[in-house]
Specification:
By secondary structure, this protein is α/β, with parallel strands linked by helices. The protein contains 10 helices and 7 strands.
Amino acid sequence: MGATYKWDAKDYAKNSTAQFDWANELIDKLTLCGEEHVLDVGCGDGKVSAALSRRVSAGSVLGIDSSEQMVALAGDNFPQNEYGNLSFAQADARALVFDGRFDVVFSNAALHWIRGHQPVLAGIARGLTTGGRFLLQMGGQGNVVDLIAVLDEMIARAPWAEYFADFSFPYGFYGPEEYAGWLAQGGLVAERLELIPKDMVHENAAALVGWVRTTWLPYTQRVPEARREPFVEELIESYLAAHPLDSEGRTHVRMVRLEVEGHKAA
């Protein structure tokens, strides 16, 4: 969504169960009537957009993503001849050009890939009908602090430090206070701004490896391809030393989601 990374869309699709589960919880909060035109910002592999399309059988859903690979996979997985009210397009969330086209703007687990959300919110406001609603969930203030602590230690020392000499933190993990001001600036009315703790559970260490491999690209793609597997292995080993598997062999990562809900001012 922010900087350009080379996504392995199919690998991501296999390792994004938690994101999909949380997206379904979020969709339930929309209370859709079935006729809305919905924009899904950061649609990824398309399965969340498809779930939305089933809720608006008399409306439509447009899923957008900055990743060409993701948009291609989404189109393959959910073709228009089977999902007539669903379409996908490659687009930058910081440069949305829709004018009053949507009744609802939705985004799940995507916007934290962008630092500074004012351009995003301006585009959302522009794309909404007057009184149109938005519901956004993203990594929030305090998200994944335990894993980031391990990464910070690793990238500050050999043999990894040489790959992170000019590195700056890539994610936008914001809190309600910052967001309230940005919404007001963009002509959007906040109805709810909430930080929600989440426990991301993976069935085993291998599943945790898959999640890191497919989503922590700002770190992994700085490491030469031949050394990425050892980098991820060391990260997981260090993380699990401090945060061991539970009695059933599962891993846990403390997450914090920022949920932002409201409407476009009249």
